[in-house]
Amino acid sequence: MGESTEGLTQVADKMTVDHSEAITAENIKSVVTLTFPDGFVYDGGDIRLFLTSAGTAYNSTSFEVDKNVEGQAQQAKKDDETQMATASFSDISLPVAHFIVSPYKTLSGAVKNEKGEAVASAYITLASADGVEYYSETDAEGAFSMDVIKYGKEYTLTVSHPSYDAYTHPETISLADGNISGLAITLTKTYTFSGVVTDAETHAPIAGVEIYVSNPESGADVMTGTTDENGAFDLKFKQLGTYDILFKAAGYDLVSYEGTQFEGDMVGTAVEMQKTVYTFSGVVTDAETKAPIKGVEVYVSDPESGADVMTGTTDENGAFALKFKQLGTYNVLFKAAGYDMVSSEEVPFEGNFDITVEMQKTVRTFSGTVTDAESHAAIAGASVALYKGEDKVAEATTGADGSFEIKVKDQAVFSLVVKAEGYEDFTFDTIDLTEGDMTDTPIEMTPNSGVGMLTADGLRVYGTVGAVVVESASEATVRVYNAAGSLVRRADVTGKTRIEGLQRGVYIVNGVKVIVK
User: Fold this and answer.
1) CB atoms within 10 A of CB 510
2) How many Cβ atoms are within 10 Å of 318's Cβ, its own excluded?
3) I want to staple 513 with a disulfide (CB 3.0 to 4.6 A). Which of 276, 310, 335, 451 is the partner?
4) Does the CA dihedral 216-217-222-225 come out positive or negative?
5) Residue 119 backbone zone (phi > 0: left; psi -120 to 50: alpha; other: beta)
């Protein structure tokens, strides 16, 4: 007790040994055996033991001493622990302390991958919370073994390998109860499924493609992802096996692969997607008759540029079907001769769709005023008629101011006939309403010049500029005399006939006086 303990580390304290066995010279045994459960590292320094004893009788204890070292041990002259503070000490030779390292415990096992194959060169670490660590490495068969000296501690086991995910054993390990063998460790690997998705026609990358990898039996997704702006995707998975793959993008046909074997990394996968071909279809009919309209021109154009993206024409059933690939917003126009155009702007094209279009016939206006060619006075009650061939299409009667207006649902060229009592018929062969309306059309009518316009034989006769006009319901013979009574013309007529080449003056036609201008 006279020696200082400064700088020394206490590794055990107050260990009590109950020793009652008799020991003789022939039966020498250890009197004191000290154990250090946590062990300690001996670096060659002093080891100091402080021993006291108590007994019912006097005991004599002999120690083996080191003859090479003198005066390194002390013995108290009093063995009463309560009197140690006042006891004197005597120097004796250093007792020999025998230190025996307790047998270590062994942890062993094997490391395999999820296929059951041995994993060589896996690094195993056994670490306690207070920094004690043991290490081992698997051999070619995936086996490992490590000797644990401080086997009474709780350890965390981890395994690392450059080709596999880091592994941590789910439970702490202690060898306090003995060796542990046959520890089976399975390493898993995170595999990569990556690639690029492009347009099959343009080969441009497609962003936003949804990728689904699913279990073929349950249909459950095992991994999902989306392509980036470069059309690239990078999915991670751990479980090898057989899966179904689906690529999905707006405006493109689905791409699917069933029963794909995932046996490891799948990188550099190239996927091409075809744009979906959609149909814009329908039927165009007349709004009034509901009859199909053939030859209607259909235009679908870009709202910004105005460029046509698809065009077509209706068939004999008024039907059309246009194909397109690019979804978006477009302007639609229907155009047919004789009909008002039908248009819709910024129509969303979100997929296939079918429509029915009704077109109104175009209403053309022909209007004007009928007046007397000589007096320029308005002619009321005149009949104004448009003809298409022999068929009368529309008719109007002039008002008090001589005005008229005719509406026709047709874009065509018509002939015009205007009739008024006391006036020569006005005819015109070309009233063209194909391009638009004809309004404010002036029509001048020439007054009839006859005195008694009906002859005794039922002919209607009247004079006009340089001629006599005869209207007959049947064949008749007309004789024209001048004022001197001379026969100047003779003609067989039927219907409406003009007898030309007459000088200005008064003539007698079948007994009726007629004035030729």
Assistant:
1) 19
2) 22
3) 451
4) positive
5) beta
